[in-house]
Design goal:
The protein has 380 residues and is an alpha/beta fold. It has helices at 14-19, 44-48, 69-78, 95-106, 129-147, 157-163, 221-227, and strands spanning 2-4, 22-24, 29-35, 54-61, 82-88, 117-119, 152-155, 174-177, 196-203, 212-218, 236-238, 241-243, 257-262, 265-270, 278-284, 287-292, 295-300, 306-309, 319-322, 336-339, 345-348, 354-358, 365-369, 372-376. The chain is built from 7 helices and 24 strands. The longest helix has 19 residues, at 129-147.
Length: 380
């Protein structure tokens, strides 16, 4: 933790100055997101390939549920992200019932699951700070017993002191909310440090349409793994297989990928998309793949009498070419005329696609081979 000089004016009291100390991270950070039904359906494969390492998904608001929780909870795990869950807490409603909703949603947390989060930011007319504090205690105790881990507290400096004003939870990890372009946040001084920082609500991530909350973890990926109950990943690749049960991956080839060593561990990457960025590639000789930030969608060239070729194309750029225009996958497409199987004369353009197909005139027929074709009188 690094403390930066107070932002308070010189004539402010020491108490106010302490409230406004800016707390920087300890060094490395890890990028993540938090999501809810407001992000609609998420392409988790694209998110998992984007460099995001953790995702925290909403269980619901008070006694209500989030329509996307089940899909998001499963999707984040499926693509190998460390995952967490949060509930928007309503202190004026049945606290035990809210805690039970959380427990029913996540159960006893497994390796790879972050502690659940209580989201403390709900307007609560008529609830005193002492009552708010007592309600949080009840929720925290019940959820700790039901999930096996003490939770995280999400709040902002602007909210905690006016409505809760308690130091009772300083031993729990703080997820601080502050949207700013500043390099370091100024947290509520009931905590001495922050674990997570939600730094924007207008972030952008592949696989999610529109805005998404972006977060960082204050530490290395290995320390985040520890919080999620897993040993630091020290896996390595043996062929297409990730070796190290603690990483929970196995054979990458089972879903059309290969193994790549990544820092202190290893990960599965698509054969055709070994790096981030956009590319068009051949997954196999009949399948075209479109890569975006490591995620891939495929199309079948054979569906329209073509095959996939990179011949003559720029690196990481492929296309479907017609079997009628370029009979060999190794050949470079060249503009020429051909005879189609139905007897029509067509022109193959330099991209390998046939165009302008037409019947020959009466008394003539299409004659020629891959080198060129024309309409001739077959008796001549």
């Amino acid at each position: 933790m690094t403390l930066i000089a107070s932002c308070a004016p010189a004539d402010d009291s020491l108490e106010l100055a302490e409230h406004e100390l800016v707390v920087c991270g300890d060094g490395p950070t890890v990028e993540g997101i938090d999501v809810s039904q407001w992000q609609a359906t998420i392409n988790w494969d694209a998110v998992g390939a984007s460099g995001i390492r953790f995702a925290i998904v909403r269980i619901g608001d008070g006694l209500g549920g989030d329509t996307q929780f089940t899909a998001n909870w499963a999707g984040a795990r499926r693509v190998g992200l460390l995952r967490g869950a949060y509930q928007f807490f309503r202190p004026s409603r049945d606290v035990n019932a809210q805690a039970d909703i959380v427990i029913a949603a996540v159960g006893m947390l497994a390796p790879g699951d972050l502690p659940v989060t209580i989201d403390v930011e709900a307007p609560s007319p008529g609830v005193t700070p002492a009552q708010y504090t007592a309600a949080i205690h009840t929720w925290v105790d019940r959820v700790t017993a039901g999930t096996g881990r003490a939770p995280i507290v999400y709040t902002g400096r602007y909210y905690w002191d006016p409505y809760v004003a308690s130091s009772d939870f300083a031993g729990l990890p703080l997820w601080h909310a502050q949207y700013t372009t500043a390099a370091c946040p100024n947290i509520n001084d009931r905590w001495s440090d922050w674990a997570f920082w939600q730094y924007t609500s207008t972030g952008s991530v592949p696989g999610i349409s529109g805005n998404v909350d972006r977060d960082i973890w204050n530490g290395t990926y290995e320390t985040l793994q520890t919080l999620a109950g897993v040993a630091a990943c020290t896996a390595h690749c043996e062929g297409t297989t990730i070796v190290d049960a603690s990483c929970g991956r196995g054979d990458c080839a089972a879903f059309g990928a290969t193994c790549a060593e990544d820092g202190p561990g290893a990960r599965c990457v698509f054969f055709a998309c070994p790096s981030l960025g956009d590319a068009t590639v051949c997954v196999d000789e009949m399948t075209l793949g479109n890569c975006h930030d490591g995620a891939i969608t495929t199309g079948d060239c054979s569906a329209f009498a073509s095959y996939c070729s990179t011949a003559g194309a720029a690196p990481m750029s492929a296309r479907c070419v017609s079997v009628f225009c370029v009979p060999s996958a190794d050949a470079v497409p060249v503009a020429h005329d051909i005879c189609l199987p139905n007897g029509q004369l067509a022109h193959c353009n330099a991209d390998g696609a046939p165009e302008g197909a037409r019947d020959c005139d009466v008394g003539t027929a299409c004659v020629g081979d891959a080198a060129g074709a024309t309409c001739l009188d077959p008796s001549a």
